[in-house]
C-alpha cells in the first residue's frame, strides 16, 4: 500500500513537473514571441518614424539656404534732389537692412545671452535646450524656456512665415524641418551672417521690423549709436512684441530688461558696474519723448506720393506682368528704391501758394455727413448730407447751397438737423462729420521737354489721410475754353489749311436747337480770326472753326493724341470746341496736353518717377516716357504766339470789343503763353500755360459744383495764384523766349479777311488800320487779296450812297457782310449804307448834261425816292461806278 501510495505521489509529482515544464515552455515561448513582436513592432515603428521624419525633411521647403535673408523691406521714395520723401510700408515690411559692422557688440550680446547662450558653439540646434524644453512641457514647468536657437528662429521667420501653424501635427512637422534646415544653414553661413540676418528679421513692435528701424522708431538714432540700456530694451521686445512693447508695455519691458542685463553679466558680456549704469539710465522717458514727436510729425502721404503709388502699381502690371496683389506687395514690402521727378523747391512753392489764405477771397466749408439711427421699432436708417439739403428745402431755405461761412456754422446746422430729424426713442449708433474748405484748387507743373512732373497739389487745406481724393489727377471737370486750343484751333492750323488769320463771322450762331453765345457782353464782333479767337476766347469763332473747318471727329482725334483719355462716343458734337464734354478732364492730362505745344508739338507722357531699383540695387523699371508727335513745330509756334498775346493787355480790333483774357497770369520778366477756361455757369475755372522751362495748370471750383459767385470766391483768383507760383519758380532764370522755327514766315494781311491787305482800303477801316503782320507756316501765306473791305462813293453829308441830288461826294471804306448774315455785329455797323435820305428833288436842281440820266438836255425834277435809270433800261445807276 505504501508502495502504491508512493508511486501515486511520484506520478502526481511527475505530472505536476511536466505541467510546470510545459507551462514554463509555453510562457517562454510567449515571452519570446512577445519579444520578437515588440522588436518587430519597434523596428516597424522606428522605420515608420524614420520614414515620416525623412518624408517631413524631404518635404522641407526647397530654398537656397545661402539666401535666407529678410525678404520684406520698406520701400524708400526719393525726390529729384536725392532726399527721402516717403517710406512706403505695410504690416510686416517696415524693415531696413543693417550690416554686422553696424551692430553694437552689446546689441548682439544682449540677444545672444537671452535667446541662445550657446549660439557661438552649437551647429544650428542646441540639444540641451531642446531637452530642457521637452522636460518643461512634460512637467508643466513654464519657466524651462524654449528650445529654439537663433538659427532656428531665423529659419522660422524667413522660411516658415513666423510659424503660424494651427495644429500640433503641423507644428511638429515644421519643427523637424526647422531643425534640419538650421543644421544645414549653420554649415554654409557664418555665425555673424546668421545673427545679422536674424536681427534684420525680427518684429520689434509698432510695425518695426529689424533693429535698424527699431532704433529710429524708439530712440531716433542709428542702430550703431545704441547704448547698453537701449540694446537691452530692444532684446526684451522680440519674445512678445505686444506685451513687451517699450511704449505700451513699459513695465513688462523694464522687467525683461533687468533679466537680460543680468544674463549678460552672468555670461561675462558686461561688468556689474555696466549693468548698474544701464539700470540707472532713464531710457523709457526718452522713448516716450521720441514717440510723442513721431506722432506729432507723422503725416499722410503727399498728393504727389498718392499719384506715385498709382503710377508705380500700373507700371508694374503693364511692364512686368504683375497682378494687382503682386504689384501691391512689391511696392510696400519689396524694399524698392523709387527715384521720383518731384522737385522739392517747386513743390514747396506750390503748396505754400495753394494753401495761402491771402490768395482767396472766400473760405467756406462743405460737409460730408453720416448719421445712422436705430428707431424705437428696431429699424435702422442712414442719413447723409443729401438729407440735410432736403431738410433745408423743407424748411423753405431755397438759398441754401451746401456751403457754410465757417466750421461752427456747419456744426450748428447739423445740430439743428438732428433736432428736426430725431424722434423720441431713436438711438444714434454712428455719426461722422467731415468739413472741407471751399473753393478748392489743384495744381500741376511739369517739364515739357522730359515729361517729368515736378510738383502737384490735389487740394487746398490740410490733407488728413493717404490715398484720398486727388483733384490734380483723379478728378474730372469740364475744361471750358481751354479745349478750343486742342479740338478746334490746333487741327485747323495743323491739318486743315487754316492760318492764324483765317476769319469766321462772329454773330448769332445756331445748330439744331442749340444757340451758342460768347462770354462777354460787348456784342458780336463780325469777322474775327483764329488769333482773335485765342486771345479773346471767342466761342462762336471756335465752334464755327470746329464745325466748318475741322469737324468734331478730327477734333476728338487730336484731343486723344494730346493725351486726353476721358473723351467718350457722345463727344462728337459742336460743344466739343468749348469743352462741353461728357466726363470732363483731369488737370494732369490737360497740363500734359499743353506741354505738347510747349515742346514743339511732341507729346511726352507725364511721369512721376525715373527709375525703380529692387532691394539688391538692380534696375527694376527704367521709366523712359512715351512720346509721339501731335503737331508740326510750325503749328506749335503759331499757337504759342497767339496764347502769349492773350497774356498781354489788349482790346480786340473793334468799336467795343472784348479784352484779352489772361493778363492777370503774366509773369514779370519771363515769356509765357497760356489759355484760360471758364464753364458757362462759373462752376470750373482753369488756366493752363507754359514758359520756356515749365508747363503748369491750375483748376479751381467747389467740389459739389456750386457756382463761383462773389460769395464763393469769384471766377478770377486762379490766374493770380498761377502767376505767383510761376514767378517764384522762375526767379533768377534767363528768358530765352519762344524762338521762331525755320518752318515759319511772316506776311502782312488784313485782320478782317485773313488775306493780303489792300493799301488804301484795309488800312482805312473805320475803326483804324486793319493791316498787321502775321506768322504763317511756310507755304500757307495767302495769295488772294482782301474782299471783305470795299471803298465806295458816298454823300459827303450823309455818308450814304449818293443820289443825283447829293451836291458833294467823297469815298469811304465799308464792310461786305456774308450772305444771309442779318444780325447786329460790330462789322454790320460799317456795312454798305443805303441811299442818301438828306438830299432830294426838293432840295436841288440838276443842270443839263451834268449826269448821264434819261434826259440830259434840261434840268430834271424827280419825285422824292425816285432812282434815275439808264436810258431804255431799268438798271439803277450807281454813282461809285465812276471811281
From TrEMBL:
Residues 652-662 have a biased composition (Low complexity). It is a single-pass type II membrane protein. Keywords: Antibiotic resistance, Carboxypeptidase, Glycosyltransferase, Hydrolase, Membrane, Multifunctional enzyme, Protease, Signal-anchor, Transferase, Transmembrane, Transmembrane helix. Pfam families: Transgly, Transpeptidase. Residues 442-726 form the Penicillin-binding protein transpeptidase domain. Cell wall formation. Synthesis of cross-linked peptidoglycan from the lipid intermediates. The enzyme has a penicillin-insensitive transglycosylase N-terminal domain (formation of linear glycan strands) and a penicillin-sensitive transpeptidase C-terminal domain (cross-linking of the peptide subunits). This is Penicillin-binding protein 1A. It comes from Lacrimispora defluvii. The lineage of its organism: Bacteria, Bacillati, Bacillota, Clostridia, Lachnospirales.
Amino acid at each position: 500500500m505504501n508502495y502504491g501510495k508512493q508511486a501515486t505521489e511520484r506520478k502526481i509529482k511527475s505530472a505536476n513537473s511536466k505541467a510546470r515544464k510545459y507551462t514554463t515552455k509555453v510562457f517562454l515561448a510567449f515571452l519570446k514571441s512577445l519579444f520578437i513582436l515588440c522588436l518587430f513592432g519597434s523596428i516597424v515603428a522606428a522605420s515608420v518614424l524614420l520614414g515620416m521624419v525623412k518624408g517631413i525633411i524631404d518635404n522641407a521647403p526647397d530654398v537656397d539656404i545661402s539666401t535666407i535673408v529678410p525678404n520684406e523691406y520698406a520701400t524708400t521714395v526719393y525726390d529729384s534732389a536725392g532726399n527721402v520723401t516717403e517710406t512706403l510700408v505695410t504690416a510686416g515690411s517696415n524693415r531696413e537692412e543693417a550690416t554686422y559692422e553696424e551692430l553694437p557688440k552689446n546689441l548682439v550680446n544682449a540677444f545672444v545671452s537671452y535667446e541662445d547662450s550657446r549660439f557661438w558653439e552649437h551647429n544650428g540646434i542646441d540639444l540641451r535646450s531642446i531637452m530642457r524644453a521637452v522636460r518643461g512641457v512634460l512637467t508643466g514647468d513654464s519657466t524651462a524656456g524654449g528650445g529654439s536657437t537663433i538659427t532656428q528662429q531665423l529659419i522660422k521667420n524667413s522660411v516658415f512665415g513666423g510659424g503660424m501653424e494651427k495644429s500640433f501635427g503641423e507644428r511638429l512637422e515644421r519643427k523637424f524641418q526647422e531643425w534640419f534646415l538650421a543644421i544645414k544653414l549653420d554649415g554654409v553661413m557664418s555665425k555673424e551672417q546668421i545673427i545679422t540676418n536674424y536681427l534684420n528679421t525680427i518684429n520689434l513692435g509698432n510695425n518695426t521690423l529689424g533693429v535698424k528701424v527699431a532704433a529710429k522708431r524708439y530712440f531716433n538714432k542709428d542702430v550703431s549709436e545704441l547704448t547698453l540700456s537701449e540694446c537691452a530694451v530692444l532684446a526684451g521686445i522680440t519674445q512678445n512684441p505686444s506685451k513687451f512693447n517699450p511704449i505700451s508695455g513699459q513695465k513688462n519691458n523694464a522687467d525683461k530688461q533687468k533679466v537680460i542685463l543680468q544674463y549678460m553679466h552672468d555670461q561675462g558680456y558686461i561688468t556689474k558696474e555696466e549693468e548698474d549704469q544701464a539700470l540707472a539710465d532713464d531710457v523709457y522717458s526718452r522713448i516716450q519723448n521720441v514717440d510723442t514727436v513721431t506722432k506729432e510729425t507723422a503725416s499722410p502721404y503727399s498728393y504727389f506720393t498718392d499719384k506715385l503709388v498709382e503710377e508705380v502699381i500700373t507700371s508694374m502690371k503693364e511692364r512686368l506682368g504683375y497682378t494687382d496683389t503682386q504689384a501691391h506687395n512689391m511696392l510696400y514690402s519689396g524694399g524698392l528704391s523709387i527715384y521720383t521727378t518731384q522737385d522739392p523747391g517747386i513743390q514747396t512753392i506750390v503748396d505754400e501758394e495753394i494753401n495761402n489764405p491771402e490768395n482767396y477771397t472766400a473760405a467756406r466749408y462743405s460737409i460730408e455727413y453720416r448719421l445712422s439711427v436705430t428707431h424705437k421699432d428696431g429699424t435702422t436708417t442712414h442719413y447723409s448730407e443729401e438729407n440735410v439739403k432736403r431738410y433745408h428745402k423743407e424748411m423753405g431755405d431755397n438759398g441754401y447751397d451746401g456751403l457754410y461761412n465757417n466750421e461752427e456754422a456747419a456744426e450748428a446746422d447739423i445740430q439743428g438737423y438732428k433736432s428736426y430729424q430725431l424722434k423720441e426713442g431713436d438711438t444714434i449708433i454712428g455719426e461722422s462729420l467731415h468739413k472741407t474748405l471751399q473753393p478748392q484748387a489743384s495744381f500741376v507743373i511739369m517739364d515739357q521737354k522730359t515729361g517729368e512732373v515736378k510738383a502737384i497739389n490735389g487740394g487746398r487745406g490740410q490733407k488728413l489721410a493717404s490715398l484720398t481724393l486727388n483733384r490734380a489727377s483723379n478728378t474730372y471737370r469740364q475744361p471750358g475754353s481751354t479745349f478750343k486750343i486742342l479740338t478746334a484751333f490746333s487741327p485747323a492750323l495743323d491739318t486743315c489749311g487754316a492760318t492764324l488769320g483765317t476769319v469766321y463771322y462772329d454773330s448769332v450762331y445756331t445748330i439744331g436747337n442749340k444757340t451758342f453765345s460768347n462770354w462777354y457782353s460787348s456784342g458780336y464782333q463780325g469777322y474775327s480770326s483764329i488769333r482773335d479767337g485765342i486771345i479773346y476766347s471767342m466761342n462762336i469763332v471756335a465752334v464755327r472753326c470746329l464745325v466748318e473747318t475741322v469737324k468734331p471727329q478730327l477734333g476728338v482725334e487730336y484731343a486723344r493724341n494730346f493725351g486726353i483719355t476721358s473723351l467718350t462716343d457722345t463727344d462728337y458734337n459742336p460743344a466739343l470746341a468749348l469743352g462741353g464734354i461728357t466726363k470732363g478732364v483731369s488737370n494732369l492730362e490737360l497740363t500734359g496736353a499743353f506741354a505738347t505745344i510747349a515742346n514743339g508739338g511732341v507729346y511726352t507722357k507725364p511721369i512721376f518717377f525715373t527709375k525703380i531699383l529692387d532691394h539688391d540695387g538692380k534696375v527694376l523699371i527704367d521709366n523712359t516716357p512715351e512720346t509721339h508727335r501731335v503737331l508740326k513745330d510750325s503749328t506749335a509756334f503759331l499757337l504759342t504766339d497767339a496764347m502769349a498775346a492773350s497774356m498781354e493787355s489788349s482790346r480786340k480790333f473793334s468799336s467795343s470789343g472784348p479784352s484779352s483774357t489772361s493778363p492777370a497770369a503774366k509773369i514779370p520778366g519771363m515769356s509765357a503763353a497760356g489759355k484760360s477756361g471758364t464753364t458757362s455757369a462759373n462752376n470750373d475755372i482753369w488756366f493752363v500755360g507754359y514758359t520756356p522751362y515749365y508747363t503748369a495748370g491750375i483748376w479751381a471750383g467747389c467740389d459739389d459744383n456750386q457756382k463761383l459767385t462773389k460769395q464763393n470766391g469769384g471766377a478770377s483768383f486762379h490766374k493770380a495764384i498761377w502767376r505767383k507760383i510761376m514767378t517764384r519758380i522762375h526767379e533768377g532764370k534767363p528768358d530765352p523766349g519762344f524762338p521762331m522755327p525755320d518752318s515759319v514766315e511772316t506776311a502782312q494781311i488784313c485782320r478782317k479777311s485773313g488775306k493780303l491787305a489792300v493799301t488804301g482800303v484795309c488800312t482805312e477801316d473805320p475803326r483804324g488800320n486793319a493791316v498787321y503782320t502775321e506768322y504763317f507756316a511756310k507755304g500757307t501765306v495767302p495769295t488772294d487779296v482782301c474782299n471783305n473791305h470795299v471803298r465806295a462813293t458816298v454823300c459827303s453829308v450823309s455818308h450814304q450812297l449818293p443820289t443825283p441830288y447829293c451836291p458833294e461826294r467823297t469815298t469811304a471804306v465799308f464792310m461786305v457782310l456774308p450772305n444771309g448774315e442779318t444780325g447786329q455785329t460790330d462789322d454790320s455797323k460799317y456795312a454798305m449804307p443805303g441811299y442818301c435820305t438828306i438830299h432830294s428833288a426838293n432840295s436841288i436842281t440838276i443842270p443839263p448834261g451834268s449826269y448821264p440820266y434819261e434826259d440830259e438836255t434840261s434840268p430834271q425834277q424827280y419825285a422824292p425816292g425816285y432812282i434815275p435809270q439808264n436810258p431804255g433800261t431799268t438798271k439803277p445807276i450807281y454813282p461809285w461806278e465812276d471811281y
